[in-house]
Design goal:
This protein is mostly beta strands. It is about 0% helix and about 30% strand.
């Protein structure tokens, strides 16, 4: 079926402008009913600055000075939410508290102003609280699923592969689509500098060699906090499992100690 996609933008008052719409990837598309109009208020956007097992904090980007927030563990249509269920915000930083571990939350916001103008709702987005920290040492074979491991990247995904042809132990492994992202563990409780780690890897199809690097992060939401602790390892295209081992001797100071 048809889907209306809305985008907001601001431009200088003077000048000539053209609106361009296109697909970056995927199938052929059909376009119809393009509308360009002024909006008194633009829906806010948010950036999460922290995400813990029971709390999450975001910053609001908006020209308004007040906002309504609604969140739930179930998907929802913002226009159907009663006013008394909304959380009124007057600060650009908000912290969700008393959240449930390993739970997906959906949220949406709208902007308000003193004149009574209210923006459209933002799109309904989601975040997921992480697992409790894993106590070192630990072993992960993914027999119970991804269990709070996550893939951070712009495209692709990670999912469980239950094909016995692509496992070395047990009945399941993780398949990561071709990407330059990072496969990130749950929080680890312990001094990593005292441990060594290993993982068994293989190219699924055996067409190309893949370069692998291991490291640590202080913030799983921010790839810029990644610090490599291993040399770059080239995984051959033979399609055979190879054991890749590394230690954390490159960790300096206490920033990555826990």
């Amino acid at each position: 079926g048809w889907e209306r996609v809305t985008s907001y933008f601001t431009v200088p008052n003077d000048g000539t402008y053209f609106v361009a719409i296109g697909a970056e990837s995927g199938n052929k598309i059909l376009l119809d009913s393009i509308v360009v109009k002024k909006e008194a208020l633009i829906p806010p956007t948010v950036t999460f600055t922290s995400l813990d097992v029971t709390t999450a904090t975001f910053n609001i980007t908006s020209d308004a000075t007040a906002w309504d927030l609604y969140y739930s563990t179930k998907e929802f249509a913002p226009d159907t939410i009663a006013e008394e269920q909304l959380i009124a915000l007057t600060q650009k930083t908000y912290t969700f508290e008393k959240l449930t571990v390993k739970t997906k939350y959906y949220y949406a916001l709208r902007a308000k102003e003193d004149k009574g103008n209210v923006s459209a709702w933002s799109s309904v987005e989601s975040f997921m609280t992480p697992c409790e920290a894993k106590v070192l040492p630990f072993t992960e074979g993914f027999e119970d699923g991804l269990d709070c491991w996550r893939l951070a990247l712009e495209g692709g995904e990670a999912y469980i592969n239950a094909n016995a042809s692509y496992t070395t132990e047990g009945s399941q492994s993780v398949y990561i689509e071709e990407s330059k992202g990072k496969f990130i563990s749950p929080k680890l409780d312990g001094d990593l500098s005292k441990y060594v780690a290993s993982v068994k890897l293989r190219n699924k199809w055996g067409y190309y060699a893949t370069k692998i690097v291991a490291g640590v992060m202080t913030d799983p939401l921010d790839l810029s906090t990644f610090k490599a602790v291993s040399d770059t390892f080239e995984l051959s295209k033979t399609g055979e499992f190879v054991k890749f081992s590394f230690n954390f001797s490159k960790i300096v100071g206490t920033e990555y100690a826990n």
